[in-house]
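TA notes. Do not distribute before section.
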Amino acid sequence: MNEKILAVEDDEAMAGLVRDALASKGYKVTLRSSAESALTYLGGTLPDLLILDIRLKGLTGLQLCEILKKDPRTSSLPIIMLTSMAHEKDKVGGLRTGADDYMTKPFSVEELSARVEALLRRVKASGALAKVLKAGKVQVQLDSREAFLEAKRLDLTKLEFDLLSFFMERPKVVHTHTALADAVWGEERVATSHTVTVTVSRLKEKLGGAGRMLEAVPGVGYRLRAE
């Protein structure tokens, strides 16, 4: 295993945890404590994956992610964001700026290794992040914005397609009503918990039997259960 990973984390103890966890799995890990120093590093070396803390001093992780996703050279760089459990908006912000996954602190080294391995596997399989998502009998084509149940094209609204894509890009993760509203509806449109619930219900109906993959987590939100 020779993949290069850049971890940007200003907490020395957390940075050491990330480095030791991934180095033990055979990854080549480089640490940087600021977004500015990470940009300098990335100007000469392009790693296979970036682990990025959101709450950095100076240029934040969100700002760095946005910069990298707008640069053709680094736009396809896989990024895992690290954020505090208490900051739901940070998670949504990271996903909006183009991050491919997020993890909340504290986390286990086993989970970190698994997330890194899964994301790198996706990249290797396609040469870039998947443009086609699959879950059970459901397939989503991101480029053409089409969704299929087996071979039948699904007639989804824009919101339903965006919601389905959001779930399929992040399977098994529990998303709160607030996170879904912010990520899918955005700031320009008002979406209450009831709005989210109704839209999820309509999506489940259109998915037929495959709709059981969308599970309600009582008192929290929803998740896509892998079949």
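Switch to the second chain here.
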Amino acid sequence: MPDITREYINASSIEADYYNRYNRFQELVEYCRLNGCTRIGTAFCIGLASEAEVFCNMLQERGFDVISVCCKIGGISKDDAGIKKIHKNQPESMCNPYYQAEICNRNNTDLNIIFGLCMGHDIEFSKNSKAPVTTFLVKDRVLGHNPAACIYSGYVQKKMLEYPDR
């Protein structure tokens, strides 16, 4: 049996009280309220900067102190690091989930939220965050940030078969 923490009890209460009535954002706000989280870190992807701004504004409108950190913070060149680029003849910076976590840690966030970080970068951010981490938005450029579409859609499943993995 896991340790029954206040956070665990509160998460279970949210499920019971708001089952099929609250969306993920509403559940997030309620979780923060019940657990006394007031300073929220948001680690976002530069490709979702507009959406992240709306998200952070929504949190601020509900009284939260929001620390938002873009994935490209630090501007480390992929050329300097010897890392493969998307566009060979253009400058390109690496994502920096380590520094995103460090900024959140320095700002003593109570909870950190992943907002569309790349696969793997989300894991590294979570490993380096001192505060608990949840995910609000999962990046999936092909499926409109809805990775579950490959489970629910026969069309998507067929397309996946047409283009086998390497």
